Each structure stands twice: as C-alpha cells, then as structure tokens.
Records
---
Amino acid sequence: MTLFWPDPAALEADLLTLAALESPSGDAAAIGQVMAVLEGWARELGGETQTLSGGTRRFAFGVDGQASPLLILAHADTVWPQGTLAQMPLRKDAERLYGPGVYDMKAGLVGGFHALRALGGEWPAGGVVLLVTPDEEVGSPSSRGHIEAEAHAARAALVPEPPVGEGSAEHAHALKTGRKGVIDAAVTLTGRAAHAGNEPERGSSAVAAAAELIGRIEAVARPELGTTVLVTQIAGGTASNVVPAECRLTLDVRVSQAGEDERVLRELAALTPADSRVQADWHLSVNRPPFPRNAETLALFAQAQAAAQELGFTLTETSVGGGSDGNFTAPLCPTLDGLGAPGDGAHAAHEHIRLDLWTERVALLTALLRRL
Ligand SMILES: [Zn+2]
C-alpha cells in the first residue's frame, strides 16, 4: 500500500481558517461557525452530518450498519474568550504556528479531515463516525451521552487531542494510552461568628477547622496507585475582628485506577472537622472517570506502532494527569489519545503547534485508519 504524506501548505491553510473563528465553550453561535466549516468539509467527502442535542455534530462516512464503525472524537470549543485573537494573533516562525486553540485542538480537527480525505472514499469496514463536541473544555456536560453512545457502538476510538508537550522528550512520537480521572471536590465549613475581641469563646472558627482538616484531606491520596488529592484553594473569614463562620476549600483530585474514584468519594464525604461545632458540607462529583491503560488499548497501540514503523519512525506511549473525552470512551472501547499535532502551551499564552512535525502525525492517523 502506498504511504500517504499530507500537503503541509493545505494543512496550514485549513488550520488558519478554523483558528480565525474564535470558539469559546458556551458561545453556541461562535462554535456554530466552526461547525459550519466542518460541515462543508464533510460534504466534500460525501459524509452525512447530523446535529445532536446540545450542538454536537456527528459526521458519518461510509457507515453501513453492517460492522462497527471507527470513532474519531474531537471538540470545536477552546478555553479562550472572544477577543483573544486581538491580543494573541495567529503568527508563525520557521517551525511553529502560534495562536489560541491551534494546539487544543483545531490542528487535530484539521488533521482528522485530511486523514479522512486521504482515504479517497475507501472507508474502513463499518465506516467512520467523526463526533465533534462543543463543550469538552468545560467537562462535556451536553455531549457526554452522545460520546458514550458512539463509543458503545464503535470498534475503537481515535482522539486527535494534542500529544504531550514539547517539554517532554517524547513529544514528537508519543501517544496517550492512559489518562487520570478527575473528581470535582470542594467542602464548605460552617462555624459560628462572634466578636474576636469581646467574646471569642462564643464563636467556632471555620478557618481553624479548615486548617485542621487539610492534612487529613490530603492523606486520602494514594500516590502509589496514582491517586493525588491536593487542597488548591482556600477562602474564609469576613474581617480581622470576627471569628470566621465560613471557610471553603477547593481540591484537585485525580485517579488512575478504576475503583479509586469511589474510594476517594467515600472517604472525603466522611471527613468532618475535629471541632464538632463546625459543620462540613461536601460537594463531590466525578468529572471524568479514569482512562485505564488496558489490554484492548495496548493492542490498538500495537497497530499504531506498526503503522509508524512503516512510515519510518518509532512510537512510544505515555499516561498523563489531564483528562479528555477519551476518558469517556476508554471504559467502553479501545482508545488512543494524543493523535493531534505536536506542540505545546495548551490553555497558555504560548500555545502553538510544530508545523515541521505535524505531517507525520496526520500520516500516522491515515495509516491507522487504513489498518483498522
Ligand atoms: Zn482538548
């Protein structure tokens, strides 16, 4: 089979088209403009477009219902508010293209379409579903159900999110075969206010209770299992002469292994301050379940490695702390993540992709679609 290398100028032109359309999560009209460009590209490839509830688009290519399709999962939203381009314009140097949303993940969307185009209408058995969601950056509230339904039906999920950043030695040639799950956690402590000078004994300090509680909260971590629990924000008190009646702690909680999310939820919910006059109200929910590195995903990774070998490079695998929509598909079908453009600076002012390394990634996605 002849190997496909994409045209770098065409990739770049399409990325500039998408990146010029700002698309912050929650701005349905702006995201709709990006979706409209994608719909045009899908139409050129003979794809069928469906708009699902919440604004997710489902593009189907050669889906015949005879076999399970492959799923490509991407998002059209970015973390950047409307108007960012004025301060942080698109620009490039010899190797890099900078701008809001280029790395996370408009280059991934462009690469996905170029890989589909390279198939020349010869779709894999069962076809390909490309699902593009509008709310990944805010935890996918409207799209999670659609993602899970497609993952149930799919043979495998390929996620062209950014690979690990340039700070890592592996950035050019690594895929993500595991991601931590994320739990949203905060606790509000309620004590009793009193004059701190005249009658402090009549109060009960929520700030003192919080200080006592922090060590026990962080002890819920199990680093050996990949579970981290950190108190990352604290807010409490109203004035220097008032026994503080309220204090709020916000946590960053991540888990690697299935079952750890339930343990952490249970143990945090049971934590109460030593001062029984202070009440604890926990706010706990699973944002994304862990994306476990399991046998099915490793078999899929082996296919990607073989495809890379044919293209002349060696692929490695990494597990990362950050979650993506791959966390929703991984429990339901084998999933490979990090198939997007190399670069760095997701959600940061130096966000960019590496133009010189991008074509290789698109070639890999194409070769993988042909193999599966
Ligand atoms: Zn992303």
Note: Residues 75, 104-105, 136, 161, 324 surround zinc ion (CB under 6 Å).
---
Amino acid sequence: MNPTPSKIALRGDLLDFSADPGFASPRAATGVRFRADSWLLIDDGRIAGVQAEAPGADYQRVDHRGKLVTPGFIDTHVHSPQLDVIASHGSALLEWLEAYTFPAESRFADEHVARDGAARFLDALLAHGTTAAVVFPTVHKASADTLFAAAQARGMRLVAGKCLMDRHAPDGLRDTLESSEADSRELIARWHGRDRLAYALTVRFAPTSSDAQLAMAGRLLGEVPGLYMQTHVAENEDEVRWVAQLFPDARSYLDVYERAGLLNERAVLAHGIWLDDADRARLAATGAQIAFCPSSNLFLGSGLFDWRAAAEAGVNVSMASDVGGGTSLSMLRTLADGYKVQALRGVKPSAWQLLHAATRGAARALGLAREIGSFDAGTLADLAVWDWARGPVATHRDALARDLHERVFAWLTLGDERNLVETRVAGVRRYQRH
Ligand SMILES: [Zn+2]
C-alpha cells in the first residue's frame, strides 16, 4: 500500500446519516446527510470534518468530484470459508449445510487453507466496499487465528470467533466442551480488544451445541467484558421444528439462547424470520440485534423477514450478506434484495432506511458508532467511493433522476461492486479499481 500522509482531503458527494430514517417515506425521512461536492477531511486516519471550501495546503487532496462517497459498509453476518460454496444449487438450509458447507469448512482445519481463505475473503470484502464485518470462520482454532491476523494486517474492524459445535456435525467439524472452552479462552486472550478486533462467542446454531456448551458460552460471555455473541436463529421452518425437538423445555428457539445467558446488547443473531411477538420483546429488552440476510433468505427459500414488526417492537436490525447462503458480498445487492423481500411483505423501505441499516444503524447496534458507520468527526475514516452509475442503462437512469432519493435508490438498485472506485480503511487506501 502507498504510504499515507496524515492529512487527506477527499472531494466528492458525501452521503451518511445522523439518525435513523426508519420507515418514513423518502421525502419525510430525517437523519439524511448529503453534502454534494464537499471535502471530507481526514487527519491521522480519523474524520476531522466536512467542509464546502478547499482545505489548506497541509492536506493532500484526493479528487473524486462527481462520485458518491459513503461510510464503508458493515456486514453483520458472513461466513469466511463459504466463498468456496457460494452459488451452490438446489437445497434448503439443513441439506445445504450437509451437502456443501460442512465439507468446505472441513478443509479449514489446514492452517495454509485457512490463511489463504482469510486473505481472499477480507480482500474480497474490501473490493465490495465493506470495511467492517461480523464473521463466522470454522470450528478450527486456526481459522479464527488466521482471520484475525489478516484483519489486523489490513487495519479492519472485525468481530469473529471460532465456531462452537460439539454435536450434530460430521467428523473433523466437532469440538468438545473442554476443547471449545480452552480454544475460546486462548483466542480471546490473543485477539479480543487488540487493535480493531473483538471476539465473539460463536455458537453455530442451537442444534450443533449441547446444553453444556451453550451454558459454557453464556458463562464466558458474562465473564469477559466486551465480548460479542453471534449465532443463527429461526431461519428455516424445518430447523425451528428440529430445535423444538432438541430443546423441549424451551419456550422458543430464541429462548434456547436466552436461557443459556447468550442474549445481550452485543449479541448478533442472523435471520430471525420465524419469531413471535414474545421473542421480539426479548430481543428488544436484551438489546440483541437481528442481522437481516435477504439474499440468503431468498436463495435458500427460508422466508421473508418481518422488518416492520421487529422495528415496532424496538429490535435493532442490521443488514448482512450471509455469504455463502447469500449470493453476493455486495451490500448494494444485499440492500436491493432487502427491498424486494420487504416488498413481498407489502412494505417499501426507503433507500435511506436500507443504507442506514448497513452503516450507522449497524454501527450503533454493535456499540461501535464512535468508531464506524458515519462521517462524524472523530470516527475512523472507513469509506467507499462509488460511481453513481456504470453502463448505459444505469447512466441513462441516473441522468433522469428528479431528486436525491430517486438517484440514490437507482444507484442502490442497479449498482454493485463494479461501481466501486476505491475503499479506505482508517484513511488508508486498501482497494483501488484498476
Ligand atoms: Zn449464516
């Protein structure tokens, strides 16, 4: 990477959010901050301010006039080893795990495979404009170690942890109660709170952990300050029925986690499609968030997440690709799919609501709003620069947009990683289109 001067001024059309636009109509929404043709000032990797006038000569100028600049996207649920199985045909969740995912994850026991996979995965995130993520590696300690090391080398904000799975998984993909606790403690000591890294107790999902392992994870979560928890919940109806058989005393799938002490304000639960009002009330009360994974939910035929019910109950909702169940690391593709899933529920979220949930909303839900998700002064300069349009159809549509929302919505709906010009992490250019 190029050596980076401490003061950078980046010129472009700056879009971020100061508050949650919610389900308001595009024109009634508040919290949208759009500053056309302005200068984003970066000092020592942090946002120093935004201004309309050109800065002084002590700033190195980067001219992205006519391009859109957003905070780097935050993908709150994605599987690093599953680039190997993205776009695999023809099955729903439980068969998909058996047929594709578990065999791919088995290979990550090999440290060299894990190291190559971690680098490929994080470089791919950056090449899609994603600068922060909450990631599942595999059950193997090496898969988490190599992922953290690769994120550290790139200066990225990453939340991850080795998967806990001591039952209902093939040979080579199971840990034990003892090994899972020892490995988790070792990884926490090595990585949690180091640079921009945080550890997440990573329960794959309820069926692959024994009661004892769930309880161990809950104890650790209460013991070590600042730990995250990530898992899956209520993705697929067959899965929900299986969980009910495995945990007959639990009120619901979500309740399995709550009884183990696994819900707190740093808990990230993917999907949450088949929840009821009582579950949503518990998510809101504990501060746990749902990672909405629309492309995965469509691809695996899992169901249509009820975003409005979650929001009305006070549940934090962020956006996630869930690759490899999801079919693209692009958060633009993910947001466009999110719109379509909500449309099938009779709801039309604004571009503002969608973008907020992948930037400032996700940062707030993760307790990281002082670090990422906006252009607030003092946050780290994680950002992405985009072409408003690529190709004749999008360019034509962009030129016809009558207002800002129309323009941003067309960008979000028609765009993808091909629109990405560059990605910066803490001010340092980490991806550049050639
Ligand atoms: Zn997942």
Note: The mean pLDDT is 96.
